[in-house]
């Protein structure tokens, strides 16, 4: 059994324990996990062998990378798995400072893939049937014109930052509210025109916003494993209950057409290792991509229970070992339900 010292960053996410547990009890490796997070009470500290508090990669990229390299030497790290958007960008940007293998793509490719505007532009040009209707705006007048072109007030409109992360800053413009539903439901990011008008009308210019058509069910969270733009396998999680960041109940299965779409996007952006894409359905029935996450996805650990361990297989890929992929295991859909648990400090 091969012994591996694995460094995992940003282990404080809600689903970090799932990803960390995917490296336990494997037949091929004995994995010693060193976990880091900028937050002292990160939940993942309870699922690793060694935990250390790191600098925040969002605030200090170079300081974070230098800290990671000190751990590489201190713990004789064989390979690093960056688990946050900013961690991925920081490490890929300063990859020459890291003296071990890293499960991360090329910085130039990641920068494009994290740019929602660039992603939509590439979709529109190369696979327009899978591109939502959208506009990029940075002033009030363009904002007003764009929401009307999308279909407001007859249709809902999605408004989000061009460089947003993890569903942050995503809002829905709608003037169709039902009194009873509002006061019987949990709050959602759906607001009337006056809300956006009051915020934007006095701004001469602002950071790029994406004004996009509102998408319908079904929603698909898809996960792939790939290298240098070549896709090896994609599995689909159809969301039955959840939100833009998490699927709490979903069906998992293999879909060849979904895999073909993922392969086109992976090739276009030259992606490597594992990634997550979010798809949904337009009014005219097209399946379109609305979010691309070129790093390990939050729910990547789920499928280990039914036949494919994304975190572990990605580790194998980075180490040059043989992947184990059996698509026939996923022909029949299986349903999962996620729940909260806790650990004591």
Tags for this entry?
five-stranded parallel β-sheet; six-stranded antiparallel β-sheet; globular; Dna Ligase, domain 1; ATP_grasp_subdomain_1; 3 domains; D-amino Acid Aminotransferase, Chain A, domain 1; ATP-binding; 345 residues; Rossmann fold; alpha/beta
Report what the structure shows:
GO terms for molecular function: ATP binding; metal ion binding. Keywords: ATP-binding, Nucleotide-binding. It comes from Aliarcobacter cibarius. InterPro entries: ATP-grasp (IPR011761), ATP_grasp_subdomain_1 (IPR013815). The protein is built from ten helices and 16 strands. The model has no long low-confidence stretch (mean pLDDT 94). It has a six-stranded antiparallel beta sheet with strand order 15-14-11-12-13-16. The relative contact order is 0.14. It folds into three domains: 2-104, Rossmann fold, CATH 3.40.50.720; 111-115 and 215-337, ATP-grasp fold, B domain (D-amino Acid Aminotransferase, Chain A, domain 1), CATH 3.30.470; 133-213, Dna Ligase, domain 1. A hairpin with a 2-residue loop joins strand 11 and strand 12 (230-242). With 345 residues, the chain is of the alpha/beta class.
Mass-distribution shape: globular
Rg to the nearest angstrom?
21 Å
**Class inferred from helices and paired strands:** alpha/beta
**Count of discrete domains:** 3
């Amino acid at each position: 059994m091969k012994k591996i010292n694995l460094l995992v960053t940003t282990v404080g996410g809600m689903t970090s324990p799932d990803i960390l547990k995917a490296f336990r009890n494997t037949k091929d490796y004995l994995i010693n996990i060193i976990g880091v997070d900028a937050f002292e009470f990160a939940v993942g500290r309870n699922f690793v062998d060694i935990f250390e508090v790191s600098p925040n990669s969002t605030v200090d990229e170079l300081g974070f990378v230098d800290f990671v390299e000190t751990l590489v030497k201190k713990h004789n790290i064989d390979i690093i798995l960056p688990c946050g958007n900013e961690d991925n960008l920081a490490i890929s940007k300063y990859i020459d400072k890291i003296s071990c293998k890293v499960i991360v793509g090329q910085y130039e490719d990641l920068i494009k893939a994290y740019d929602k505007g660039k992603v939509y532009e590439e979709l529109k040009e190369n696979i327009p049937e899978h591109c939502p209707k959208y506009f990029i705006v940075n002033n009030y007048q363009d904002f007003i014109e764009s929401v009307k072109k999308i279909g407001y007030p007859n249709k809902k409109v999605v408004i989000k930052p061009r460089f947003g992360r993890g569903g942050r800053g995503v809002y829905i413009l709608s003037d169709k509210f039902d009194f009873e539903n509002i006061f019987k439901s949990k709050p959602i990011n759906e607001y009337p025109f006056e809300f956006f008008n009051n915020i934007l009308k006095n701004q001469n210019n602002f950071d790029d916003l994406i004004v996009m058509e509102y998408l319908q069910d079904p929603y698909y969270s898809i996960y792939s494993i790939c290298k240098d733009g070549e896709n090896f396998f994609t599995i689909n999680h159809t969301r039955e209950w959840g939100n833009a960041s998490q699927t709490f109940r979903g069906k998992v299965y293999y879909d060849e057409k979904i895999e073909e779409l993922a392969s086109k996007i992976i090739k276009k952006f030259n992606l490597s290792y594992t990634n997550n894409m979010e798809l949904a359905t337009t009014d005219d029935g097209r399946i379109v991509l609305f979010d691309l996450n070129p790093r390990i996805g939050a729910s990547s650990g789920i499928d280990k229970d039914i036949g494919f361990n994304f975190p572990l297989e990605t580790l194998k890929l980075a180490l040059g070992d043989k992947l184990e992929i059996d698509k026939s295991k996923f022909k029949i859909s299986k349903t999962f339900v996620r729940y909260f648990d806790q650990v004591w400090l």
